[in-house]
């Protein structure tokens, strides 16, 4: 994470310095188009693109961390492992499920989302993926 922050900070400083160079070159050329102003503008464009790339990378990192934290919280809640932490009791009233079961449900939802994004109806996701069909019932109810 430190590397991402350092890269973003460095890209920002270079971008601001390039902007200052453009202003300085324009001032020195008395608002005339010169090779110096063209070079300063080109450098500014390059620094802008590098800054945008650094911002995109930082945003991707933040999104991946958010997803990982969300997934961990979901697994903790679903498996009941929060009940043992800090003396908290499970407040959902639902019986805990196994992490494997949660992963199966998560994959089923992802496949449905992908299918819906591609114009599918959502009813044929079991055929789109060759794995075992998803059963939404709790394991203790599935045999009944």
Shape: elongated
Low-confidence stretches: 124-130
User: What portion of the residues fall into strands of 2 or more residues?
Assistant: under 5%
Biggest β-sheet: count, sense, barrel? Answer: none
Mean pLDDT: 78
The count of helical stretches stands at 5
- Give Rg in angstroms: 26 Å
Specify the structural class.
mainly alpha
Alpha-carbon distance between the two ends = 49 Å
Count of extended strands? 0
Helix percent reads 55-70%
GO biological process, one term: leaf senescence
Region (Disordered): 121-144
Protein name: Mediator of RNA polymerase II transcription subunit 32
InterPro entries: MED32 (IPR033244)
Topology (elements, then pairings):
Layout: H1 2-28, H2 35-79, H3 99-117, H4 125-128, H5 139-142
Protein name: Mediator of RNA polymerase II transcription subunit 32
Region (Disordered): 121-144
Task: Summarize, please.
Residues 121-144 are annotated as: Disordered. This protein has 144 residues and is an all-alpha fold. The chain has a domain at 1-77.
Description of the molecule:
This protein has a domain at 1-77. Helices cover 69% and strands 0% of the residues. The chain has helices at 2-28, 35-79, 99-117, 125-128, 139-142. It starts with a helix and ends with a helix. The model is unreliable at 124-130 (pLDDT under 50).
List keywords for this structure.
5 helices, single chain, 144 residues, 69% helix, Mediator of RNA polymerase II transcription subunit 32, mainly alpha
